[in-house]
């Protein structure tokens, strides 16, 4: 067993569990993986998925153009990356500002994306995914942590502190990011409704369907969040004393929470699809087909 | 500790047409605290067998000194935990038909715990943690002397009662499996399940939140869900026990709105860890009484 680097432990010194450390354990050296299934596939695929999103989101956030389809194309679509519209030239009624002037070099998405980014970074599901895929802590079950089998040049191995120290202790702000993104879910719903506004009345295009699907998936992800499940009723010892919260916990947040992983990915994809579709229509790559 | 990884994995050749089925090639870990290696055994396959059946057959026919812990053979006692092809699992619940037999099947003891011999490990760490769980503390009885619970309030805890204490979740948890130095300050998934059961119990009145954070080390868990993946009872350990506990710790420790709410409404502040510590088995442990010599004992 390698020597552990001494780092101060956070918080008061607790009563330690009386256990003997360093007794011989069985099996081949820890770096040897005995698993015969493709254990590397899941972290690889999810890691590539997240990396692809980061690349796309970076491009979309700095694009600062073609993020809405306006009345000049007889549509009223706004990209979720740029909602609420902070610039002066948006078609949407949800226009806060203009905080950033039209045609300025500063992309309003850089202000907007901070909130959903913080929400997804601290999400319990995404934490699992990136701890496995990027931290390799661990890369897969029963496969050794990357940090546990290697020593630094001075021979010491870094102590594992999990989410007890800065910066990972900040994962505990998850519920605050939830409050903010709740507002964004409302705004994206409004954008989806606005997508039905056509010149001369109500209509529907393929873009409208995409924005509606995006709003639905965002809500499924938002309301299935573990922090939301806790606040809606999970924190109670006696659900029987709070019938409304019990109903929400039993029939809404818990069922959605069971599929949180699915909605995490679907909502991530729907954001990309919505933005890409609006970019392509706005830039004239093709026209948005009208359904009615 | 001398370690030999044993024979290199080989491909088991297919038997010719019409010949009896090929032998199973099993690599079982043999050894103790002084060292060990994988030992190869070959046995004829039999239909419907689980890994424990094959291990027992090897013990009966080829290795009578093989140490293996088992009891019910029905997935209910939690004794035969091991690592099969590197995956933590119960030997009695792993069918041979689910394993690829074109390569040797490896069976090794749980890696997070000290080796005793062959497939048997010393799991006493878990019993030490169990002593440190603050006990159930019900409130006063109803005026008629009874205590009542609504069915809906106890439904949530039923899932946790399924735990058979096989300690596979403890074994797979990288916090102690790969970082043994954390054992003195980390309870592990099995005991987070127990703590969640107590914290959600409608009659319990003890607030363990600060204790769970400070003494039980829940902040070390980075929710990678391996405990849930290996649980033979399909308990959703991460989603239904650990994350609800983490959220309770946020209520008690990291949420300024909850703090303000307590200030305004006068609700009690979270109980200090030291107070919860008084309700553990360790706090009430009596020093062992000196054994009274029986007639005939040798001094």
Which terms summarize this structure?
heterodimer; A: 292 residues; two-stranded parallel sheet; two-stranded antiparallel sheet; B: 299 residues; alpha/beta; Ubiquitin-like (UB roll); Fumarate Reductase Iron-sulfur Protein, Chain B, domain 2; 12 helices; 8 strands; 33% helix
Structure report:
By secondary structure, chain A is mainly alpha-helical. Chain A has one domain (59-282). Helix content of chain A is 46%, strand content 7%. Chain A has nine helices and eight strands. Chain A has helices at residues 41-63, 109-112, 114-122, 124-135, 174-194, 206-223, 226-234, 243-258, 260-282, and strands at residues 3-4, 68-69, 77-78, 85-87, 95-100, 156-157, 197-198, 201-202. The radius of gyration of chain A is 24 Å and the shape is globular. The mean pLDDT of chain A is 89. Chain B is of the alpha/beta class. Chain B contains twelve helices and eight strands. The longest helix of chain B is centred in the last third of the chain and has 18 residues, at 237-254. Chain B starts with a strand and ends in a 15-residue tail after the last helix. The chains are: A mainly alpha (292), B alpha/beta (299). At the A-B interface, α4, α7 and α8 of A face α2, α3, α5, α8 and α9 of B.
């Amino acid at each position: 067993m390698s020597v552990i680097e001494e780092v101060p432990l956070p918080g008061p010194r607790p009563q330690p569990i009386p256990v003997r450390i360093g007794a011989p354990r069985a099996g081949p050296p820890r770096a040897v993986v005995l698993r015969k299934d493709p254990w590397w596939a899941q972290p690889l695929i999810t890691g590539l998925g997240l990396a692809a999103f980061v690349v796309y989101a970076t491009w979309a956030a700095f694009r600062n153009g073609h993020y809405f389809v306006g009345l000049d194309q007889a549509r009223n679509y706004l990209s979720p990356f740029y909602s609420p519209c902070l610039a002066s030239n948006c078609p949407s009624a949800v226009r806060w500002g203009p905080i950033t002037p039209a045609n300025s070099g500063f992309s309003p998405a850089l202000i907007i994306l901070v909130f959903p980014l913080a929400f997804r970074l601290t999400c319990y599901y995404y934490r699992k995914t990136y701890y496995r895929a990027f931290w390799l802590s661990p890369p897969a079950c029963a496969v050794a942590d990357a940090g546990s089998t290697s020593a630094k040049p001075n021979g010491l191995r870094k102590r594992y502190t999990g989410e007890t120290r800065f910066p990972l202790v900040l994962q505990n702000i998850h519920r605050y990011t939830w409050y903010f993104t709740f507002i964004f879910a409302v705004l994206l719903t409004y954008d989806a409704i606005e997508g039905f506004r056509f010149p001369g009345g109500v209509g529907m295009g393929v873009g409208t369907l995409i924005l509606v699907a995006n709003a639905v998936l965002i809500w499924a992800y938002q309301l299935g969040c573990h922090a939301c499940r806790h606040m809606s009723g999970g924190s109670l010892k006696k659900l029987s004393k709070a019938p409304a919260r019990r109903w929400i916990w039993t029939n809404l947040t818990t069922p959605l929470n069971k599929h949180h992983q699915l909605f995490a990915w679907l909502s991530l994809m729907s954001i990309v699809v919505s933005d890409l579709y609006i970019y392509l229509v706005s830039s004239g790559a093709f026209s948005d087909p009208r359904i009615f | 500790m001398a370690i030999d990884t044993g024979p290199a994995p080989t491909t088991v050749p297919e038997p010719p047409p019409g010949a009896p089925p090929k032998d199973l090639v099993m690599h079982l870990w043999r050894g103790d605290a002084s060292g060990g290696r994988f030992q190869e055994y070959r046995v004829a396959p039999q239909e419907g067998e689980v890994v424990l059946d094959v291990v027992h057959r090897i013990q009966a026919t080829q290795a009578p000194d093989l140490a293996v812990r088992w009891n019910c053979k029905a997935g209910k006692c939690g004794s035969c935990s091991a690592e099969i092809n590197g995956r933590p699992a119960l030997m009695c619940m792993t069918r041979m038909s689910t394993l690829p037999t074109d390569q040797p099947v490896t069976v090794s003891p749980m890696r997070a715990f000290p080796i005793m011999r062959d497939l048997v490990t010393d799991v006493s760490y878990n019993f030490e943690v169990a002593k440190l769980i603050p006990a159930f503390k019900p409130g006063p009885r109803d005026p008629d002397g009874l205590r009542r619970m609504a069915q809906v309030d106890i439904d949530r805890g039923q899932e946790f009662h399924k735990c058979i204490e096989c300690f596979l979740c403890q074994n797979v948890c990288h916090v102690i499996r790969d970082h043994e130095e954390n054992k003195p300050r980390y309870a592990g998934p099995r005991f987070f399940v127990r703590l969640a059961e107590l914290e959600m119990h409608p009659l319990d009145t003890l607030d363990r939140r600060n204790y769970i954070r400070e003494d039980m080390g829940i902040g070390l868990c980075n929710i990678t869900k391996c405990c849930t993946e290996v649980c033979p009872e399909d308990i959703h350990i991460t989603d239904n026990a650990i994350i609800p506990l983490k959220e309770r710790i946020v209520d008690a420790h990291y949420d300024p709105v909850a703090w303000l709410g307590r200030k305004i409404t006068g609700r009690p502040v979270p109980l200090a860890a030291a107070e919860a510590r008084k309700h553990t088995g360790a706090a009430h442990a009596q020093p062992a009484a000196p054994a009274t010599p029986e007639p005939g004992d040798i001094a």
